[in-house]
Write a structure and sequence with these properties.
Glutaredoxin, about 650 residues, six-stranded mixed sheet, Serine Threonine Protein Phosphatase 5, Tetratricopeptide repeat, alpha/beta
């Protein structure tokens, strides 16, 4: 309005349409000196073209850039138009790639000059930073400016005339339909579902229906009438009635309908559990939650994997065609998923079945979730939520009484979180606590925990059966727990329980020293004695005849491989605290934490004399300890490791005999 305000003119501009618009691209499509619009919509029509036919006597200049030293399209170039005069404020635009949502406007830069009739100067800052000026260019002209040419090339003078009038085309959206067919390029394996046979070795159509759903009954009728064609195609059918779990459901009515149709295939009543599992498969295919419709059908291949999903009533002819395509290769299956023609520029994305496995474990389907995990754990391991899945896996194993599997899952979750997954730690502690309680019990044993109520019978003196086998060590075998963090809470707990304190190999000596302080605090609070001689400290130890040889073999061998390919990657996850524990200086950059740094500051590497000196220094730094745990690696060549162990035992340890 030229007074600092705006006015909504969409109703008179021709742009006031009930479209669900998304992207707008600008271009002088007809070269008449004004800007036209292309609009992409989420609704029909998907693309609209708006030609600007508003009369105007104002002038313009259009610039097309071409880079030579810079990128050819001159993306990133800045163009200023100087009109001259005492108050010359240039008109400025930057040439961009992807200048709007789902949009790329024309690379022609259009400048409105208003009533200015004289020449203009065009100044270009090219993407490489160089400046170039093109003076005395006329208005109402299209120019091409090439980098480092020093002159402008005229492409068109004046406005192009409209040779043909444009009239709006009719919008003809497709007829609405309650039916749809979706081919799954990634065959999704179904979890175990009651009453559903998944191991028949032939295709199966699972159709959800209800007695009160007219399209469902019509679909069952057609399936029954064309049973011969379906059996000839090698396909079986399972009609899954949802009558027991829907408000209007009538199981007796459903049975009457099946008898009336003389339905020749399998049938069963669906439970809420069955539908929830099918909903998981549906949600993975569509990546959005919408409740399963009725009717809905799942075409499973001979291995029990989802191949095609049908929303609404399916056509048997389409079903038979899809059955014939089940053995088709990837290219044919990919083509079947296309809604329109085109060319693929990248391989299609494959689905990861991880969400189904996670949901099964989260929602308490323990056996199904564990089975799904075991089947696909190799592909699950790379998922960013895998650590979370491991905790639920441990919980599921606990509920089933499989403590060994639970501990394995918890331990991996703890390792992936660098010891920070509190839920996994609590789960592992519970499993361990149950074992200790069983070992300490006499006769009948009961315990009510977070996962299940455990009851172990008393020993039967006749059959000599009853409680679990117990170890000969009393009260139990030695238990050692490794600590990681500063003043570790686990060290304090270990001291209170009288277990063996251990310190991991991935922390600096200053942090290690705090482990003993925490251990002693826990022991003192529990009234227990603390003895440094049982404290075990882990370190990378490698000994060779000379320090130069030891350093070379450590940096060129498996120590470099294991830390660069595994430990650095694992410990860099999260907030970086795990990496920081290896630094002597907490302010040093993570990028400076290299194997060269470790061999000089954390590892015990060198000749027998140097290794003995480094171990003595470690002993003094932490105030004394009793056992060195030399970390093992899959050393190649093995002879180097054997020689290192021999030198450690025969030449290093005798030099430290006074450290008691």
């Amino acid at each position: 309005m030229r007074n600092g305000t705006f006015c909504d003119v969409s109703a008179v501009s021709g742009l006031d349409l009930p479209d669900d618009g998304r992207g707008v691209a600008r271009a002088d499509w007809d070269r008449d000196g004004d800007i036209d619009f292309f609009v992409s919509n989420r609704s029909a029509p998907r693309v609209r073209f708006f030609r600007n036919d508003l009369p105007s006597s104002n002038r313009f200049i259009a610039i097309r850039l071409e880079g030579t030293d810079s990128n050819r399209d001159a993306i990133g170039a800045r163009v200023n138009i100087h009109l001259g005069g005492e108050r010359d404020l240039p008109l400025a635009k930057t040439l961009r790639a992807g200048d709007g949502f789902l949009s790329q406007s024309s690379k022609w830069l259009h400048f409105g000059l208003g009533g200015h009739t004289g020449p203009v100067t065009v100044e270009v800052r090219w993407p490489n930073g160089s400046m170039e000026s093109f003076p005395d260019l006329d208005g109402n002209t299209f120019y091409r400016l090439r980098e480092r040419r020093g002159r402008a090339e005229v492409v068109q003078v004046g406005r192009a005339a409209h040779t043909k009038p444009l009239s709006p085309g009719p919008v003809a959206p497709p007829s609405p339909s309650s039916s749809a067919r979706t081919v799954s390029l990634s065959r999704i394996p179904l979890p175990a579902i009651d009453s559903l046979p998944l191991d028949t070795g032939k295709p199966l159509l699972l159709t959800l229906w209800a007695s009160w759903c007219a399209p469902c009954v019509a679909e069952l009728k057609e399936l029954a009438e064309r049973q011969a064609e379906l059996r000839a195609a090698g396909c079986d059918v399972m009609a899954f009635s949802v009558d027991p779990i829907t408000p209007n459901g009538d199981e007796a009515a459903a049975e009457r309908i099946l008898r009336k149709l003389d339905f020749p295939f399998q049938s069963a009543f669906a439970s809420e559990v069955s539908i929830e599992k099918l909903q998981m498969v549906h949600d993975l295919l569509f990546d959005v939650f919408t409740e399963l419709p009725l009717p809905a059908s799942f075409l499973l291949d001979q291995d029990g994997n989802l191949a095609v999903f049908y929303r609404g009533r399916l056509e048997v002819a389409t079903l038979i065609h899809d059955i014939g395509e089940l053995s088709a290769g990837d290219a044919a299956r990919r083509k079947a998923t296309q809604l329109f023609g085109g060319q693929w520029f990248a391989p299609p994305r494959r689905l990861n079945f991880f969400p189904i496995g996670l949901k099964l474990l989260q929602r308490g389907y323990d056996r199904e979730g564990i089975a799904y995990y075991e089947r696909y754990k190799s592909s699950f391991a790379g998922h960013p939520q895998f650590q979370r899945m491991l905790v639920f896996l441990g919980d599921a194993a606990n509920r089933l009484g499989d403590g060994e599997r639970a501990l394995i899952a918890y331990e991996e979750a703890i390792g992936r979180s660098a010891g920070k997954d509190s839920t996994a730690l609590r789960g592992a502690a519970w499993v361990l606590a149950i074992g200790l309680k069983i070992w300490a019990s006499e006769g009948k044993f009961t315990d009510k925990g977070n996962y299940h109520h455990i009851t172990a019978p008393e020993l039967d003196p006749v059959r000599d059966r009853g409680l679990y086998m117990k170890p000969y060590q009393k009260p139990h075998p030695p238990i050692g727990v490794a600590s990681t963090s500063v003043a570790s809470a686990s060290s304090r707990d270990v001291g209170a329980r009288g277990w063996i304190p251990m310190s991991i190999n991935l922390v600096n000596p200053a942090t290690v020293a705090t482990h003993w302080d925490a251990y002693k605090e826990g022991a003192d609070n529990a009234g227990r004695a603390s003895d440094r001689s049982i404290w075990r400290i882990a370190r990378e130890v490698y000994v060779a005849d000379t320090t130069e040889q030891a350093r070379k073999e450590a940096l060129e061998g498996v120590l470099r491989r294991d830390f660069e390919d595994y430990w650095f990657r694992l410990l860099s996850r999260g907030d970086g605290a795990a990496l920081a524990r290896m630094k002597l200086d907490p302010d040093m950059a993570d990028s400076d934490l290299t194997v060269e740094y470790l061999v000089d500051n954390l590892w015990i590497v060198g000749s027998p004399d140097d290794v003995a000196e480094k171990l003595r220094k470690l002993y003094d730094d932490v105030g004394g300890f009793g056992v060195l745990l030399a970390m093992g690696h899959e050393w190649e060549p093995r002879e180097q490791w054997v020689n290192s162990m021999r030198l450690l035992a025969d030449e290093v340890m005798p030099k430290l005999a006074d450290l008691r």
